[in-house]
Amino acid sequence: MSVDAATVRRIAHLARIAVSEEEVAPLQGELNAILAFVEQLDAVDVAGVEPMTSVTPMAMKKREDVVTDGGRAFDVVANAPETEDNYFLVPKVVE
């Protein structure tokens, strides 16, 4: 696939990039080089290759979802100015 000057101008317009006439030819060459590289990648056989999220194999670090420090509600609200039944009491701010 080859990109012509009109396509470069259209891409620039869609991307909302101001491109002067002097910049069209260099951009055309750059876009054609990028597309040529993508065509090279398309030739690589990737059958049987698993998708990766990283180049180094990693496993998610997981922990059990358990309560490890429960039953201390009184200690949690001990320094609160006002409490009731182990709940914080706060002044009403909305009428």
TrEMBL record:
Annotated InterPro entries: Asp/Glu-ADT_sf_sub_c (IPR036113), GatC (IPR003837)
The keyword Transmembrane is annotated on this UniProt entry: no
Keywords from the UniProt entry: ATP-binding, Ligase, Nucleotide-binding, Protein biosynthesis
SUPFAM superfamilies reported in the protein's UniProt record: Glu-tRNAGln amidotransferase C subunit
Top EC category: ligase
Keyword Nucleotide-binding: yes
EC number: 6.3.5.-
Top-level taxonomic group: Bacteria
Reactions that this protein is recorded to catalyse: L-aspartyl-tRNA(Asn) + L-glutamine + ATP + H2O = L-asparaginyl-tRNA(Asn) + L-glutamate + ADP + phosphate + 2 H(+); L-glutamyl-tRNA(Gln) + L-glutamine + ATP + H2O = L-glutaminyl-tRNA(Gln) + L-glutamate + ADP + phosphate + H(+)
Cross-referenced HAMAP family: GatC
UniProt subunit comment: Heterotrimer of A, B and C subunits.
Entry's family note: Belongs to the GatC family.
Functional description taken from the UniProt entry: Allows the formation of correctly charged Asn-tRNA(Asn) or Gln-tRNA(Gln) through the transamidation of misacylated Asp-tRNA(Asn) or Glu-tRNA(Gln) in organisms which lack either or both of asparaginyl-tRNA or glutaminyl-tRNA synthetases. The reaction takes place in the presence of glutamine and ATP through an activated phospho-Asp-tRNA(Asn) or phospho-Glu-tRNA(Gln).
Name this polypeptide is given: Aspartyl/glutamyl-tRNA(Asn/Gln) amidotransferase subunit C
Organism in which the protein naturally occurs: Methylobacterium trifolii
